[in-house]
């Protein structure tokens, strides 16, 4: 785009940062402004609709596969676009924030795909947002190599994972950019900046602009993304259908519209992913007021629970019926230093990947480079030389609304350890997030925004149904806060406690903890720069 055509003025409300000017060029900001101008209002309406539906469900409306779209589901003829270059074989996908060191490690990890994550694994400090974009650009330009002060070298190898970027969800704003007097939707910032700088470069390198789309709640949100893609391609003169996007099915309402979501995005779709952690969070959040949705300790809600199996089985069936990849989710165990714990963690992850591969998934996620060989070995065992198993149509799978919602079959009271673990994990994750780190290992488990959300909403749910009492929670909270006080400055610990109290101990459950924490703690606005 030529600079003479710049008309969509985006106000920059952040101070200068190292090399930020390479990303925040006038033309790139204008491009983001065009997207915000074209889609900002629709996104606001869709967020309002989320709240309306939540109220309807809370007041007893049933959740079912939509009647109005039965023609889409019953039409056997349509398929999604064929796999794009670099996305045919996706047996191992590593995920992580687009931090410079992790970018090099992930790209070299031997995984087929690197999911560069601005959502669950990133705390959206402005410098993380723009630094992440710079790291992606540098990686694609092969100028990301560096040596640490200790002399450790980070160099890109020859066989690199395909980059798939996960922008932030529709619910988040980017407060450092304003368009028309409002913050720009964070999703359009992450998508727009990456697309503007890297789409053409990726195509020239024989890949393409690829995305993971998080936290969608329904087909209208998928349609919005599709329209964003169509306009973005048109504005940059990139052929329509070049983008590919894999949608995370990680909300309970989206599970009822998997086929419709593929249909809306069919010319850009690269499949669906079973985002198990946000899915559980969504289930608790949506039905938290109902006693038949009371869940036991998080550790007891595994992927073999009948309602979780119904969800993953339906996902594989839906994808393969439409020629789309089905990608498995994240086992939380990460390798650690202790050999015995390590062995147990690897065994748990292996079982998880084996079940996914046998169920028909075409690949799966790992959170750590140490898990890449394991995941590859498991999927190699099932796929062999085939790049995927799209031909496994899973016609045997029949899933009803009751199967997806029959949570009661695994319910039971929380244990004292379960309560303490949730409080401790939420606090420890908040501590990391407020300091700009979006994923951490806590007790051998990967914790990110999605798992932290489960921790806080379970406390809220248990309190609401009086299966635990407020005094017990306050006592544990005091203990855990005191433990944090030994590790972190007291002012930070007070912020963490207050954040937990505002998001877990209130009558009205906040939909996400991130907007509150972001606005209060991560935003550093200055006067407009231009
Ligand atoms: C619910 C969901 O959405 S899942 C997807 C979102 N969540 C994620 O992506 C989490 C991804 N994983 C991670 O962020 C990390 O593995 C963590 C934070 C859990 C643990 O990280 P660490 O404490 O650094 O682990 P550890 O010390 O074992 O790391 C060893 C090396 O592996 C690297 N590494 C660890 N995980 C990753 C990763 N996911 N990608 C690339 N490199 C990684 C580390 O950078 C480190 O490299 P170095 O030796 O060059 O310094
Ligand atoms: O994004 C993945 C999830 O499990 O949540
Ligand atoms: Mg998620």
UniProtKB/TrEMBL annotation:
<dbReference type="InterPro" id="IPR048355">
    <property type="entry name" value="MS_C"/>
</dbReference>
<dbReference type="InterPro" id="IPR001465">
    <property type="entry name" value="Malate_synthase_TIM"/>
</dbReference>
<dbReference type="InterPro" id="IPR011076">
    <property type="entry name" value="Malate_synth_sf"/>
</dbReference>
<dbReference type="InterPro" id="IPR019830">
    <property type="entry name" value="Malate_synthase_CS"/>
</dbReference>
<comment type="similarity">
    <text>Belongs to the malate synthase family.</text>
</comment>
<dbReference type="Pfam" id="PF20656">
    <property type="entry name" value="MS_N"/>
</dbReference>
<feature type="domain" description="Malate synthase TIM barrel">
    <location>
        <begin position="162"/>
        <end position="406"/>
    </location>
</feature>
<dbReference type="InterPro" id="IPR044856">
    <property type="entry name" value="Malate_synth_C_sf"/>
</dbReference>
<dbReference type="Pfam" id="PF01274">
    <property type="entry name" value="MS_TIM-barrel"/>
</dbReference>
<comment type="pathway">
    <text>Carbohydrate metabolism; glyoxylate cycle; (S)-malate from isocitrate: step 2/2.</text>
</comment>
<feature type="domain" description="Malate synthase N-terminal">
    <location>
        <begin position="19"/>
        <end position="65"/>
    </location>
</feature>
<keyword id="KW-0329">Glyoxylate bypass</keyword>
<dbReference type="InterPro" id="IPR046363">
    <property type="entry name" value="MS_N_TIM-barrel_dom"/>
</dbReference>
<dbReference type="InterPro" id="IPR048356">
    <property type="entry name" value="MS_N"/>
</dbReference>
<keyword id="KW-0808">Transferase</keyword>
<dbReference type="GO" id="GO:0004474">
    <property type="term" value="F:malate synthase activity"/>
</dbReference>
<protein>
    <recommendedName>
        <fullName>Malate synthase</fullName>
        <ecNumber>2.3.3.9</ecNumber>
    </recommendedName>
</protein>
<feature type="domain" description="Malate synthase C-terminal">
    <location>
        <begin position="415"/>
        <end position="518"/>
    </location>
</feature>
<keyword id="KW-0012">Acyltransferase</keyword>
<dbReference type="Pfam" id="PF20659">
    <property type="entry name" value="MS_C"/>
</dbReference>
<dbReference type="InterPro" id="IPR006252">
    <property type="entry name" value="Malate_synthA"/>
</dbReference>
<keyword id="KW-0816">Tricarboxylic acid cycle</keyword>
